[in-house]
Amino acid sequence: MLAPANGIRISYDISPRPGSGSGAAATTTATTGARRHTVVLCSGAGEGPEQWRMALGPDLVEAGFQIVTYSYRGIEPSSCPDGPVTMAQVVGDVVGLIEHLVDAGSVEAPVSIVGYSSGGWVACEVARHRPDLVTCVSAIAGIGRSPAYERLWLHGLLEVARTGTSLSPEAAATSALPLLLGPSSMQDDQMVKSWHRLLVGAASGPSPTVDHWAAWQEWVDGPDDKHLDELRSPVQIVAFEHDIFLSPALAEAAAAQIVGADVDLVIVDDCGHLGLFEHSDVVVPAIVQFLLDHAGPASGTRDPDLGCVGGEPHEGVHA
Prior knowledge:
Blueprint: E1 2-5, E2 8-15, E3 38-42, H1 51-54, H2 57-62, E4 66-70, H3 87-103, E5 111-116, H4 119-129, E6 134-140, H5 148-163, H6 169-180, H7 183-186, H8 189-203, H9 210-221, E7 235-240, H10 248-257, E8 263-268, H11 275-278, H12 280-294, E9 317-318
Helix pairs in contact: 3-4, 3-9, 5-9, 6-8
């Protein structure tokens, strides 16, 4: 589906769709009959929304939420206008999409936002600029000072995009694996083969435009102060022990900067940047419970089947 937003058209999907289904697929909760609370899912830079079908998306629907996924400007089938994309435009696109869906009666505001990797910054910026639209934010492997390697990595991607030279999907996937998976996962042959196959498929799909990457270069190369102290919505920061893009130390520093809102810091052991998928049995329950506590159909309650969050931490989790 395409929605007019911020002067362009954004490709998006809603699950469950308004007025559809019954039981788990209904747009109202079975227990209370209340409208499902909406969670907007922001992918990382250059990524489409497909990742959310692999983890978290189905779990949120099962927990009673409605989810909205979308593609950034510069990634088809969303509009790909000429000219470098700015972070202000990326944030404005999400705001515009939410407002369009509210006006159409498809969702109710405020919504919660979950962002993966650099999508965590998008989520925080939407909450900072439009707190009236946002109940809470969960940033997965996503907010903190950009280390030197992240800056070099992004500049390398931009150089490849600008020159038109690129690795084959197989070579690109192989080189990406050690950057994304933790050491234990890299020793798991089955996991390595599975992720290589998935990354090859992703590399073979629609490629982000050079202009799309400009927003992330602007953000990474900008000042380290990202105004986290201006956030007023509850924030969850999920960090992974071996993440080379957002170390636990950087996540802890980011959490310390959020002085105007409640912060839930979750550090998960023995995984890399793809920790949501490496340890979904730990990460997914933590995120679902955070959303339930702050915005969900059972706000203020704890589902014992989701594990322990906010009390005694999961094994391998520092809360």
